[in-house]
């Protein structure tokens, strides 16, 4: 069985480092995409709560008018 030479080992190490660099780059891109999605979700949550608050206000508006109209 042939033993790998020092050059063969250095080439393999270089290939593995190159792959790791690419993986790190892809992971960074994925992290950025996740952060963007989190920001969008937070904006949607804010909008949803604002809309829900508006709907609740519309629902109770007649009661509020009646309560404050009698004061």
Task: Characterise this structure.
This protein has one helix at residues 6-69. It has 71 residues and is mostly helical. It is rod-shaped, with a radius of gyration of 30 Å. The model has no long low-confidence stretch (mean pLDDT 93).
Topology:
Elements: H1 6-69
Give a brief description.
By secondary structure, the chain is mainly α.
Radius of gyration: 30 Å
Task: Return the string of H and E elements.
Answer: H
The stretches of 5 or more residues where confidence is low (pLDDT under 50) are: none
Q: Helix segment count?
A: 1
The shape is: rod-shaped
Helix/strand-derived class? Answer: mainly alpha
Helical coverage, percent range? over 70%
For the record, give the distance between the C-alpha atoms at the N and C termini, rounded to a whole number.
99 Å
Q: Which oligomeric state applies?
A: single chain
**Strand composition percent:** under 5%
Give average pLDDT, whole number: 93
């Amino acid at each position: 069985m042939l033993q790998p030479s020092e050059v063969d080992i250095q080439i393999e190490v270089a290939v593995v480092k190159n792959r790791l660099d690419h993986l790190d780059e892809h992971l960074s891109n994925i992290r950025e995409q996740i952060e963007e999605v989190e920001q969008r979700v937070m904006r949607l949550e804010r909008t949803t709560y604002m809309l829900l608050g508006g709907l609740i206000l519309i629902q109770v508006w007649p009661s509020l008018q009646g309560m404050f109209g009698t004061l």
